[in-house]
User: Fold this.
Amino acid sequence: MAKVVLGVATSHTPQLNVPASSWPSVFLEKDRTDPRLDYEALLSSAKPGIAEELTPERMQQHDDACQKALDGLAAVLRQASVDVVVALGDDQHEQFHDDNMPMFCVYYGDSLPMGTREGRGGGDRALGGMSRAYQAAERHQLTDGPKEYPACPELGFQLIRSLTDAEFDISVSRRLDPDVGLGHAFTFIYRRLLPDGMTPMVPVMLNTFYMPNAAPPDRCYDFGRALRSAIESWESDTRVAIIASGGLSHVIIDEDLDQATLRAMLTKDSSTLRGLPADRMKLGTSENRNWIAMAGAMEPMDMLLAEYIPCYRTPAGTGCGMGFAYWL
Assistant:
C-alpha cells in the first residue's frame, strides 16, 4: 500500500519573492491602496513598537530566516525520496470563479501545464493597478522552470473515489485553464521546494477565501484525516509527501491566531484546531485552513516547527506571519 512518509507546510506569499530591502517600496503603496483594507484604521491601531519591526536590519534578519527555512524544507523533501506529492492549496480565482466555486476539488489530469496567473482574470485581484515591482513579485513563480510538470492521475482518481466513499462531496478536474495554468499555491512548491520539477503532483484545491462556502475549520481537519486514509488505501508501493501551501496570517498579521494554531498543531490538540475562529480567517489568513487540513492528515506523525516569523512590512502592521514546518 502507499505510505505517507512526510508532511510539509510552508508560506507562499509574494513577499518571499522580494528582497527585504525592497519590502517597503514594493508593498507600501499596494497595501495603502488595497480596496480590501482600511489602511488608515490599521495604522491607528498598529501594535506598539511596530517601528522596531521595520528597520532595514530587522527585515533583513527576517528574510534571511525565511529563506533558510525554505532551503531546509527542500532538503527534508530531498532526503525523504518521495515518489509523488499531494499538495493542499487554495485557488484564488485562477481555475474557479463565482460561476463555480467548489469547497474541495481534486485534479486528476495527465499533466500540470503552466500559464500566467492572470489568464482569465486569475488571481485574487487584477494586477493592472499595482506597481511593476509588485506585479513582478506575483508573477515570479511563473517565470522559471518547464512549461509543464508531471501529474499522477492514478493517485488523483484514488483520492476522488476514497474521499467520496468517506462522504465528502468532491469536485473533480481533468483540465486546467491553459491560459492560467497551475495555481500559485502549487507552482510555489515546484519553484522553491522541488526545483528539479520531476516529482509528480496531485493538486487538491480548498476554497479558503470565498464565502459562502469557504471550508469550515472542523471540516478542513476531517478532510485532512480522510485524505491520508485515501492515500494509504491506494494499492501501490508509493512514498507520498503531503504539502500544505499558504498561510499563515496575512495581509493583516494576527500573531495570536498564528501562535494558537501552531501550539495546537504541535500538541495535536484537535479540539482547538477544529474550533479556530473562522471569522478571523479572512484575506490571506484564510490559508490557515490548509494548515488545519494538514494537521488532520498528520495526526499519526510529529510536527517540527522550523520557523515562525511575523514579517511586518508597513507601519500599519501589514505583512505575513511566515510559517515553515514538517512532520516525520
User: Anything to note?
Assistant: The radius of gyration is 19 Å. The domain at 3-327 is CATH 3.40.830.10 (Protocatechuate 4,5-dioxygenase; Chain B).
